[in-house]
Design a protein that fits this description.
- The protein is α+β, with helices and mostly antiparallel strands and about 525 residues long.
- Among the domains are: about 70 residues, no CATH class; about 180 residues, Band 7 domain (Tetrahydropterin Synthase, Chain A), CATH 3.30.479.
- It is built from 10 helices and 25 strands.
- The strands form 9 sheets. Strands 3-4-2-6 form a 4-stranded mixed β-sheet, with no helix packed on it. Strands 22, 23, 24 and 25 form a 4-stranded antiparallel β-sheet that branches. A 3-stranded antiparallel β-sheet has the order 9-8-11, with no helix packed on it.
- Helix 7 packs across helix 9.
- The termini are far apart.
């Protein structure tokens, strides 16, 4: 009251603080000090301050006993508490009731993942390997984890890059830095990268058992390329080798859930198509039609030979459960000879041995040119299995038997002399034979023919004799012609003497005629004189 009267009507000023304190009596000072000490004691005993990069792990010193098999308290039992203290001031957290352990927040670095092992929760059901994923705010709410049916042990879910406040009493965290303590490699706790031009063959370690008779787990949807393990299992995914593959890219994968093996993409070169033979997929349903009775064709994604071939390029084909048969769409040359083409389909072919009508055996080289159309490639593979089988089991007996049969209808010499006709007939017959296999015959060419040596020796000797006879006749004719030439030459050389002799004869004849005429004249003159 005294202080009130003194201060009545006065406005406090900044300099009045000390003056006001001076108005307190000793008893009042004692009371203020006691209140301050009490407040400090209460704060000391009940106030907890958690830093921004920390969490407070609560351990209750006393309370009801935890249920058997549990180590995390949900209902105030003694021991580790499910809830944690976040950053800031917390009151009242009495020291005699709680022990608070400051733990750093969990930081998962970019490019890394973190795995978790739950120390409390339900038991993992038989047949399962990893604990199911439950809603628990990325393991930051241990109470929600336990209330929602979380299971103890290795977790299917995992943490990606970020900062988390995880209860270390409820969850053990496995990061790349501590991978060695869990017999793991740091690379297993990083984002998985599938390189360009490669694909990942996936094997899952949890899920249902693969149905009997299947080689791999069937495709299921909604699991985002195995990044959502719980969605995979809920959709009925199976453990073991998977039909689906991972494409090039970066993937958040739980190494406790999936293993990945990288293999090259399946490449179809230019000039080829790839016929897929799948050992997995949907139910076998033939779409080849009633006219095709030598095999079955199915749509893409079904088990069997796919009706649509793969075009040139790179394709993600799981080669563990599928086979790709390359079929050339360009002309294929097959040699029944000692040479082999680059495709090596004819490396087991050799010259064809035949026997003629007159009993002689001989060999001949044959080149067969064929073509398999893109649309017909699946039919060919469905019928014979592979291009090598087409050569070994279809073309080799077809071509070989035709020439063996045709050779028996003619003699060796007739076969040799009518080569072009034999080649044309072979083409027509072989073309009709391979058409039923959906193969186009482009041409049939006969190469070297090697007849029997003894027959060729007689033919050679006969030819030599004929040639020698022709030579002798030619030489004889040449001699006759030479003699006539020499005779004509001699006559020509004597022509000047003949002309001179003829001239001398003519001169002599003229001289004789002149003498005779002179004699006649003289005789006439004599007669005249005598008569006179």
């Amino acid at each position: 009251m005294r202080w009130s009267r003194r201060c009545a009507g006065r406005r406090p000023r900044g300099g009045d603080a000390m003056w006001l304190l001076g108005l307190l009596t000793l008893e009042q000072w004692t009371l203020v000090a006691a209140i301050a000490v009490a407040m400090l004691g209460v704060a000391r005993l009940g106030l907890r301050v958690i830093g921004p990069n920390e969490s407070g792990l609560l351990i209750k010193r006393y309370g009801a006993e935890l249920p058997a098999g549990h180590i995390i308290a949900l209902n105030g039992e003694a021991g580790y508490q499910a809830r944690m203290l976040g950053p800031g001031w917390h009151f009242p957290i009495w020291r005699w009731r709680y022990h608070v352990v400051r733990v750093p927040v969990l930081v998962v670095q970019p490019g890394d993942i973190a795995l978790l092992v739950a120390a409390d929760g339900r038991a993992i059901p038989p047949g399962r390997v990893l604990a199911r994923d439950v809603a628990c705010d990325s393991f930051q709410d241990a109470a929600a984890f336990l209330k929602n049916g979380g299971e103890r042990g290795r977790q299917l879910a995992f943490l990606t890059a970020g900062t988390y406040r995880v209860n270390p009493a409820a969850f053990e965290v496995v990061t790349a830095a501590g991978a060695a303590k869990h017999d793991m490699l740091p690379a297993q706790l990083r984002i998985y990268h599938v390189a360009p031009d490669r694909q990942g063959i996936v094997t899952t370690l949890d899920g249902r058992t693969i149905p009997a008779g299947d080689l791999a787990g069937p495709r299921v949807t909604g699991h985002d390329s195995f990044q959502r393990g719980q969605a995979f299992i809920d959709a009925g995914g199976c453990r073991g080798l998977q039909e689906e593959v991972l494409l090039a890219g970066s993937w958040n994968l739980n190494p406790w859930f999936v293993e990945v093996e990288q293999v090259p993409l399946t490449e179809i070169p230019i000039g080829y198509v790839g016929v897929v033979v799948s050992y997995v997929g949907d139910e076998h349903l033939d779409v080849s039609g009633d006219a095709f009775t030598h095999g079955d064709l199915v749509e893409r994604g079904h088990k069997g030979v796919w009706v649509e071939p793969l075009l040139p390029g790179k394709h993600p084909i799981n080669t563990r459960v599928m086979k790709v048969e390359l079929v050339p769409t360009t002309n294929i040359v097959l040699n029944w000879a000692q040479r082999t083409e680059a495709h090596h389909y004819d490396e087991r072919l050799c010259s064809i041995l035949v026997r003629s009508k007159d009993g002689f055996g001989f060999s001949l080289d044959v080149s067969q040119i064929i073509h398999v159309g893109m649309k017909n490639a699946p039919r060919v593979i469905s019928r014979v299995g592979s291009m090598q089988n087409l050569v070994d089991h279809v073309l080799q007996p077809t071509v070989g038997n035709y020439f063996r049969n045709s050779a028996q209808q003619v003699t060796v010499l007739e076969f040799l002399s009518n080569r072009a006709e034999r080649q044309r007939e072979a083409f027509e017959n072989i073309r009709r034979a391979v058409e039923s296999y959906d193969v186009e015959c482009i041409d049939t060419l006969i190469g070297d023919i090697v007849p029997p040596a003894e027959l060729m020796k007689t033919q050679t000797d006969r030819k030599i004799a004929e040639e020698m006879e022709r030579t002798y006749q030619a030489q004889r004719q040449a001699q006759v012609q030479r003699q006539e030439l020499e005779r004509e030459t001699a006559v020509a050389n004597m022509q000047a003497e003949v002309v001179r002799s003829e001239q001398m004869v003519r001169i002599s004849e003229r001289t004789a005629q002149a003498v005779a005429e002179t004699a006649k004249g003289e005789a006439a003159a004599t007669r005249v004189r005598a008569e006179g």
